[in-house]
Design brief:
single chain, about 30% strand, 3 helices, Bactericidal permeability-increasing protein, domain 1, 3-stranded antiparallel β-sheet, about 110 residues
Length: about 110
């Protein structure tokens, strides 16, 4: 990725990447934990995140194209990052934090 493209992408707030296309309607995502393969279910309805299955789903985003993974919880996310040393500085945290208080979807 070029430095110019990286600066452009870093200037976009996560909520603008996640929500705009989903402000109305229903979006369902069925995935599997990138570490242990446990089933993950996310539903966004009218820009609001419905409780995830399992509760406490985590995301890891960064490190270039293609590194956007979901995990069944913090332990799996941290374990996965630990075995990928080049990704230690990436953004990670609970998926529900992408829908921060005061923003659409909370």
């Amino acid at each position: 990725m070029t430095p110019k493209m990286l600066r452009f992408l870093e200037g976009i707030a996560p909520q603008n990447l996640v929500r705009r296309s989903y402000d109305r309607g229903l979006v369902r995502l069925n995935d599997a934990c990138a570490s242990c393969a446990r089933r993950i279910r996310l539903v966004v309805e009218d820009a609001r995140l419905i409780p995830t299955e399992p509760a406490g789903v985590w995301h890891v985003r960064g490190g270039g194209c293609g590194v956007n993974n979901l995990f069944c919880g913090q332990a799996c996310a941290e374990n996965w990052v630990a075995v990928h040393p080049s990704l230690r500085g990436v953004e990670r945290g609970p998926v529900h934090e992408l829908w921060s208080p005061g923003l659409p979807g909370t």
